C-alpha cells in the first residue's frame, strides 16, 4: 500500500493498522465481487447498473476505500447491479416484481429519460435499507469521517433517539435530506413512507416511465421546487431560464422531494407527525461542510478544483505557491472537518459545467497520482480519520407542508 510521507493535519489521527484491510487492490476487488451474505444491519450499499467491474476507476477507488476502512469493523460493502447472471444483481436481494417494492417501469425494464440510470439507482436504495438496514451511498461519495463510531452513537445504538442519518442540504429550518447518503436500521418508518410516496408518484397516469412532470404532483403540494430565480443554463444553443431549469432540477431529484414532503407531513390517520419526527429522530449533518467542502472552497468551479487537486506538493526546499497553499488548505479542511465528499455528476454538470468528479472521470488516473493533493486526500480517506464527529443541525419543529393522508391528494 501507499507509503508517501504526507503530513497528518492537526485534528486528524492515524487509524490503527489492525483496523484496516491493506491487502492489494486485486484482493479487495475479489471481496467486493464476492461479498458474504447479509447477516446483520452493518451493510454499505452502492449501486452501479453494469456492476463494480465496469465502474470508472476513480469510483472503484472510492469503494475500495470504504471497504478498507470498514470491513474489519464488521461492515460488508456491496455494489448492487442489474447485470445478467451477476451474484450482486438486485433481483438476488429484492423482489423486483413486487409492486410494493418497485414501479412497473423498473420491473419490466421500460424506465426511460435522460437520467434513467440515476433514477434506477434511486429506486433501489430505500428497498435495500428497509429490508436489510445499513448505509446507502452513491459511488461518487468519498468517506472521510468515522462512520462506525457515528453509527454506534446514533442509528445503531438502541438508546439513541436517532433513527435516520443523512446530510441536510440547507439551513436549520429547511428539510432537504441528501439521497446520496442515507442511513437507517431495517423497516424505518420514515423511509417506509418516503418509499410509498415515491412509488405513488411513479404510478401516476397509469404508470410513468420517467420522472418528467412529477414535480407538479398534488401529493407534493407545499414542498418548494428546487433551485431559485438565479438558476439557469445554456445548452446546445438553447437557453433554459429559471422556470424551466427549476422544473428539470426538481424532476431530477424527485426522491429528495418525496423525503421533504414526508418530513413536513402531518397524517393524523396514520399517526405520523413528520415535523416532530425530524426533530426527534433525524441526525442531519450540514451538507456543505459535511460533504461539499471542496466545492464551497472553490466556488463550485470544477476546473479550478481539478487544477488544484492535480498540483504536486512542493518538494523539499521549494516554496509553496499560492495555488499550492489553496490546495493544501482544501485538503486539510476536508480531512479535519468533513464527514465525506460527494463528487458531483448528473444534471449539475449541465447547470454548472464540469465538476471535479466529471474531470476525474475524463482524465483517468488523475485522482491517483502520488505526490499530488488529490492523492494526499485519497491517502487520508484510507489511513486517517478526523478526531471529531460531525454534529447534527439543531432543528426546530416547522409548520407542516401538508396535513392529511400521505397518498391522498388535498
Automatic annotation (TrEMBL):
GO terms for molecular function: glycosyltransferase activity. The lineage of its organism: Eukaryota, Fungi, Dikarya, Ascomycota, Pezizomycotina. InterPro entries: AfumC-like_glycosyl_Trfase (IPR008441), Nucleotide-diphossugar_trans (IPR029044). It comes from Coleophoma cylindrospora. Pfam families: Caps_synth (PF05704). This is Capsule polysaccharide biosynthesis protein.
